[in-house]
Amino acid sequence: MHICIRKSCINRISFGKEYDPEQVSFLCIKCKKTFYQSSTGKIRFQRIKRFVIITVVFVIGLIIFYAIDIPSLFTSNKSPEKTMDNFFRAINNQNYAVAYTYSENDFWSPLSKFQSKDVWGTHSEISIVQISKKQYFSIYGATDILNVIYNTVINGKRESIERDFHLKQIDGKWKIVRMVFPKNPEVDAFKMEEVPQNSEDAVKKFLKYLDKGKFKKAHLLSANKDWGLEFEDFLKKWGCTANVLEMTTKKNESVSRYATDIVSSGYYLTDSCKGTNVSYKYFFHLRNNNGLWQIVKVTEPQ
After folding, report:
1. At 38, is the secondary structure helix, strand, or coil?
2. Which of 93, 62, 88, 63 is nearest to 76 (CA)?
3. For the whole model, what pTM was predicted?
4. How far apart are CA 131 and CA 145, in angstroms?
5. What is the pLDDT along the chain (302 residues), one digit of tens a residue?
6. Do 15 and 41 touch, CB atoms closer than 8 A?
7. Which helix (H) or strand (E) holds 3?
8. Cα atoms in the 13 Å half-sphere on the side-chain side of 156
9. Which of 149, 253, 251, 247 is nearest to 201 (CA)?
């Protein structure tokens, strides 16, 4: 192909080469160069043009393909582990909208909060060091729990973090429903066989955990605002409790204005801080939250 630099040239652009069999040669009177015109040259140019266009479109498509993290959209449903991998990759690429699609965590909602500096907005260069399944009851309704150790850079500072991620499938897609500090089923989480079978069993287990000094497990059975929802506040109420002797515990058929079930219970306990032994009889109002019976209110018999 020849391009004459002079706009006045009547054959400014030509398609052909000297060796083309049907070429016609011309002498450009402006640039004093010989150029050639042929049908073979035109066909060759069209092929090159198509190749360039296809290449450019392919490269642009490839950039878009990975920029919006399309691969993860096709692999995200395979397993909880793959979901975590896709989640962190999207964070690394600052594709917060894509990463947000893997979340059903109320504490990360809405997207503006999710991508803020208080949640994931300052994280970069995340790499998973270790990922393993854990077996304990999820109070958040998750079916799978993954313990994840990962390295990340937060505000320019490299850190190593360990968290338990609670996941479940929603409409066929794995979602992160909660991220918490690692739990130990021996201390601050329920083994599957420890989960109360009903509201009456929940009250009995609550008193048993108080008796054994397992206050963190007792706290898991409480959603009573009067006792404090945080463990530190709960401990102020029950931390001195010892020698709990449960006498009678029975489900009451009365209708609760606070929850779904009422369980009456009489018991003795020792207040180790005051050195006194006290007997109580209360109505425990319970509600089932994500498969776990919890005490939401306690009232005295009328």
Report:
1. coil
2. 88
3. 0.71
4. 10
5. 555 555 555 555 666 666 667 666 666 656 666 666 666 666 666 777 788 888 888 888 877 766 655 555 555 457 999 999 999 999 999 999 999 999 999 999 999 999 999 999 999 999 999 999 999 999 999 999 999 999 999 999 999 999 999 999 999 999 999 999 999 999 999 999 999 999 999 999 999 999 999 999 999 999 999 999 999 999 999 999 999 998 899 998 888 889 999 999 999 999 999 899 999 999 999 999 999 999 999 999 87
6. yes
7. strand 2-3
8. 0
9. 251
Q: What whole-number distance in Å separates Cα of residue 260 and Cα of residue 223?
A: 14
Tokens of 105: 């965590």
Pairing of strands 241-252, 2-3: unpaired
- Which residues are within 8 A (CB) of 9 and not within 5 positions of it... i.e. 6 or more apart? 28, 29, 30, 31
